[in-house]
Amino acid sequence: MVQATAGLQSQVFEIEQVDDTIIVTPTVDLRESDYQRIEDGAKTVLDLLNGTGFKNVVVDFQKTDYYGSTALGFFVKLLKRVRRQNGHMAFCNVSDHEKEILQVTKLDHSWPICSSRIEALRTVRE
After folding, report:
1. What average pLDDT is seen over the chain?
2. Neighbours of 17 (CB within 10 A)
3. Which end of the chain, N or C, is less surrounded by CB atoms within 10 Å?
4. Cα(66)–Cα(74) distance, rounded to whole angstroms?
5. CB neighbours (10 Å) of residue 12?
């Protein structure tokens, strides 16, 4: 049974907790002009992974269509942290534009890209 708890909110991310998984939903396109807000939100998410029992992360892009290099750097940092904790990470609801950015940067095979949140949650638990 999936137990969801009320989420946290940073300036650019909604954060939900489902069992041992954190679901991060960007609430705005993550453009370079939002560098400091992205960094602050990233710190909030990374702090949640420090000794709290959470080991998996799903990033749900249902509310966005774009991210820049600062956000990509955060995603890579997040993946490294998750792997150190023997967890898994997946993306879901990625727009065609966001998929293209991952392909151009050669990050499209770094983590699973799922079509729905349910599929992503299943993927990180396998």
Report:
1. 89
2. 18
3. N
4. 14
5. 22
The residue to which tokens 């293209």 are assigned: 100
At residue 37, the pLDDT reads 87
Instruction: Sort 41 into a burial class: Cβ within 10 Å, 0-12 / 13-18 / 19+.
Output: buried
Judge whether residue 3 has pLDDT over 50. no
Q: Please state which of the ranges 15-19, 37-41, 81-85, 117-121 shows the lowest mean pLDDT.
A: 37-41
**Neighbouring-strand partners of residue 59:** 24, 91
Residue 54 pLDDT > 60, yes or no? yes
Domains and CATH numbers, the chain: 4-125 (3.30.750.24)
